[in-house]
Amino acid sequence: MSTIEKVDVFVAAPGRNYVTLRITTSDGVTGLGDATLNGRELAVAAYLRDHVAPLLVGRDPARIEDTWQYLYRGAYWRRGPVTMTAIAAVDIALWDIKGKVAGLPVYQLLGGRSRDAVLVYGHASGSDLAELFDDIARFKDAGYQAIRAQTGVPGLAGSYGVRKGLIYEPAATALPEEQPWSTEQYLNFAPRYLREVRERFGFDFHLLHDVHHRLTPIEAARFGKEVEELHLFWMEDPTPAENQESFRLIRQHTTTPIAVGEVLTSIWDVQQLITEQLIDYVRTSVSHSGGITHLRRIFDLAALYQVRSGSHGPTDLSPVSLAAAVHVDTAIPNFGIQEYMAFAPETLEVFRGGASFADGMLHVSEEPGLGVEYDERLAERFPYDPKYLPVARRLDGSVHDW
Known about the structure:
The protein contains 13 helices and 18 strands. The protein is an alpha/beta fold. Strand 10 (281-282), helix 10 and strand 11 (308-309) form a beta-alpha-beta unit.
């Protein structure tokens, strides 16, 4: 019987910081998992090296569900982003191995195709409306059928989602950058600029917007009602999701679809949101929510309540995560949309293969397993570079949700 023989954890920064797990079996088969947690990478790396890797050596790599339960229920200390990201990395790597042993891409092991390709949305942004309009035009020319629109709020240097250069990466400084924020200025400006986007570009594409947890429930209700005529595909993370009940208030006041979940790590974190139909899209990600095994469980629950998937997928999740997400997206019946951001050239030199983009869609790899290879030696040329996500402060100096 094949067993897990070796577990390696790599921390490198080809384009940005990534933590990559590689599991090797006694038969010489390898599987990759993504253990990246933006701004807390070393915490997950230590969790894997010091607490998880010793538990895996000698185990049967084919027993994916048993290993998941062993790492989750057996540890006593459950959930949380560090734990669930570490479990996800192991789970994804084991699915990669299982696909390679079977000679099949992972989506075939999940039941085969439910669709031919995976709809994605791109991230258009600008420091002002002129730059945003240029960026939206660029994405439309590239074939994107769905576009998220973010622009700077006049007078606020801390507007969320405005890209510097071609790659968006908010974790950019050795210590957290403190950014000013005014909810009042945002609420006065955002509906107006989204209206101008529709006036300029029309309704022949899906328009998305990320509020990024910054509003109270009643403020989010006001925003959602103001933009109803714009037919947003969704408003994302309108308010912090720790209090799932708060979304009932938003739901009572607006028909604008709601997407939530990128910072939530388990089925229990989204249970009420799904079962009481307080959201339309669940955005849990494969690398922060316990891997393919647990993400599929979340999406199966969501399917019962007509909630669709909209998985988190920025460039702080590596091509391994993107590949795993697209395998799940291809297989599930209640897929909605997949977040997608192009990777830096250095990233694609270290991580080769995986999902491919064409005509506004991602196409799953037909290679056995996930279809991604990791160049360990090349990764050594890109040492870890500590960076943190920003912190938002209201204009009175108090800390606000970033």
